[in-house]
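seq/struct pair 1
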Amino acid sequence: RISAFDVVLPNGIPDKGSVLTGLSKFWFKYTESIADNHVIATEIEDYPDVLQPDAELLKGRSMLVKKADRVDVECVVRGYLAGSGWSSYQKTGEICGQKLPAGLRESERLPELLFTPTTKAEQGEHDEPISIEEMRHQVGSELTDQLIEASFALFRAASEHAESAGIILCDTKFEFGQHDGKLIVIDEVFTPDSSRFWPADLYEPGKPQQSFDKQFVRDYLTEIGWNKQPPAPELPEDVISKTSEKYREAYRLIVGEDL
């Protein structure tokens, strides 16, 4: 399944689960020296015996993880001006209370990385942007500083690898949790569901970019005038097929092999 604007769409996207799991597996391993994460095992043979009867169902679409106490803030890092950040900048010249220089264009690289947190809404509700000061009030100043530092370090490492694969990492979001008193990365990392990936050879600031992520679906839903409230409309077959193709291409470029 795929969601857009915090609403789950009725259609499934072929291979999406395998792509998200495979990319998260790759990135968790790639960044484990930068930030601890929740992964215990990613190979079926390393799962508990009780899960072995479901091996075929779980293979390539699951991982065994630590149960963490979630930090109820989504940590968004932006390297380029796009999406809701671009919309906010057009209206106020700011993103999440952070002033930006005048005259920036859509999709332009930002002067420096921005940390723009949001609330972690319950299913069916919308995540809302908050300022860093609001985040400090919500989760504490020390934890906020730790989250910003970890988010920036993860983004820089992934951005460098993506660039070597011909991909621009525009922005992404992380979720963190506490486990045995330690801050760890949870959920997914640097997937087409949590990030905007742009083909570097087609990058042209001043307009929306082609992408390897679900922005393609968002754009379609915007074009047809959906009000972003459930129930979501059915996606046509060509949008489903193209989205699946984009996800698989992102995997191939980043991991260096076909799914």
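seq/struct pair 2
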Amino acid sequence: MKLKNDNSETEKARIIEINEGDTIEFISEPGPLAGKERSEKETSKSKEEITQEDRSQGHTEGGQEICEAEAERTQEKVDPREEEIKKLKARLQKKETEVKNLRKEKEEWKDKYLRALAEMDNARKRLEREKEEFARFALSEFLKDLLSVVDNLERALETRDETDGRPFQEGVAMIYRQLLDLLRKQGVKPIERQDNKFDPNIHQALISEEAEGIEEPEVAEVLQKGYFLHDRLLRPALVKVFVPRKNQ
């Protein structure tokens, strides 16, 4: 084993070589130069630590400013959820408007439907009335012609000759009654003369004659009977009328 002393400016070391070149290094106490160098290193290290601390502090302050700026930018940014909520609210409002319009349209169509139903019901009732009236008055022309036969029978009865004999008179009277009964079954009835007042709705004046002591036209004589078919005028009565004298 060999011992080797290695003196340098920083420190003294003893190296013991063992066996095949392996060495063990023993660090001896530092010398005066080593102490000075260590002091300078410590001073430099302190300065570096102070510088690093300043840098760290500056970095911290800068980072804080950056964080604050980032926070401000984050606040300035719109939250995606809020934007989605706004969109959903807008869509909801649009749908509510559409529903409101549809309800209004529904009410309008409902009103039109009810009106159409009412009109159809009125039309049906009107057609039924017209059908009934047609059935009741379909034979109007035939019955009017038949009344002419009745008129002739009445005249025959009024102007009969006493020499014709009673059997003929009774036969004509029987035919007359049968015709009246047939007409009555069909809804034909004569206009009954209630008073002498002239009514242009049921009377037709063939002859007019001035008379004293009257203020309105009056029926003087019925020349031909008038008839109703149910509640409708079938034929007006032909009459002679007295009218007020002009200079009375």
